Amino acid sequence: MLFRSKRLDRGEVYDPAFGWMTAARLARHRAGERSDRGRWVSAAEDEARGRDVRHGREYHSDHWEIVSAAGLADAAALAAVLEDTHAAWRQVFGGYLLEPGEFAKLLATPGRPRAGVPHAAILCAGRGQYVAELQPLEPRIGITHGIYWTPTKTAWFFVDAAAEPPEPDLVTVRHEATHQLFTEGRADAEKLRHAAGERCGFWAIEAAACYMETMRPTTFGWTVGGRDAGRGPAARERLAAGLHVPLAELCGMGRAAFQAHDPLPELYDQIAGQADFFMNGEGARYREPFVEYLSRVYRGTADPDSLERLCGRSCADLDDAYRRHLSR
Q1: Distance CA 127, CA 109 (A)
Q2: Measured over all CA atoms, what is the biggest interatomic distance in the chain, rounded to whole angstroms?
Q3: What is the DSSP-derived secondary structure letter of residue 142?
Q4: 21 strand-pairing partners
Q5: How high is the pLDDT of residue 9?
Q6: Rounded to the nearest 5 degrees, what angle is found at the Cα of 268, between the Cα atoms of 328 and 237?
Q7: 165 in helix, strand or coil?
Q8: Helix, strand or coil for residue 123?
Q9: Cβ–Cβ < 8 Å for 123, 68
Q10: Residue-wise DSSP of 70-95
Q11: Which of 69, 108, 155, 165 would be a feasible disulfide site paired with 121, CB 3.0-4.6 Å?
């Protein structure tokens, strides 16, 4: 709401098709015109012209500034998924946003809180453009469907022409947006270490993102999590096959060790199942400890035994409880 208030204060208005802009600019967009590098052209002419990411179409939502080399409608569709993810993430991981006591201090502070800086996202027109833009930064970008690039704090996606209708991969959008929200969402985000999970605990960063992949719309809002949602069934199959990396080993892994695990996709299945256990297992008794553990991993203050101490149980006991959670 803070971003929305700031734009309203500037006299801007919002249209789901075009985002936030001045009333005069919105009127021209609704009349079928588009702004292209300082001049107005017809919407048809604009859509027919290819764009690169340096001269992309701009779409401003409540919490994101999107530069789109794809169509404006594609940017609007991406913004809708990002904003839904933001709303759900704040509810699911609300304890991550503020340290104990900070919320009361915030309420006691006179005046309106600062809105901060909007998140940045880039939407490429297709996989080819996406790979060409990012391969100099990440040689293995071709195996991904989206990425949150931490050095520039930018989420990258592309429109999948094979999808019907063509759109970004929604699961990937939620996964990468979760990385962005954890990295940038706190009031003290600038103080967070850029190398979150570099020393240990990296699995939890990915587990939380896998958990948000399970987000599904309902008539009353969203559901998130569940043993049969997302990668949950695959996690159960992995466990039934006797394939399990002990939690103590996972907690000791930094980013490099985790990403070097072979096969990595199957490990993602496991940690997705573990995310549901820590968020919902045994009456959600481990939810607050897990969120605090995530906070420490992102701040770079987690140790290999931090999760054990926060949960008050050994990793071996937590492994057994996880098995029971998935087999129920």
Answers
A1: 47
A2: 65
A3: G
A4: 13
A5: 87
A6: 40
A7: coil
A8: strand
A9: yes
A10: S-HHHHHHHHHHHHHHHHHHHHHTHH
A11: 155
Return d(Cα 203, Cα 195) in angstroms, integer. 14
pLDDT of residue 99: 67
d(CA 82, CA 19): 13
With H, G, I as helix, E, B as strand and everything else as coil, classify residue 327: helix
pLDDT at residue 101, rounded to an integer:
64
In 3D, which of 312, 310, 276 has the Cα closest to residue 293? Answer: 310
Strand segments (E) across the chain = 12-15, 19-22, 33-36, 39-42, 57-60, 64-68, 119-124, 146-149, 154-158, 216-218, 221-223
What is the 8-class DSSP label of residue 224?
A: -
- Specify the pTM: 0.92
pLDDT of residue 328: 77
d(CA 158, CA 37): 22
Report in angstroms the alpha-carbon separations of 19 from 69, 71, 99, 253: 16, 13, 33, 42
User: CA 126 to CA 131: how far, in whole Å?
Assistant: 9
Q: Rounded to whole angstroms, how far apart are CA atoms 149 and 120? A: 10
- pLDDT < 70 positions in the chain: 1-2, 99-115, 165, 187-194
Angle, in degrees to the nearest 10, between helices 315-327 and 232-240 = 110
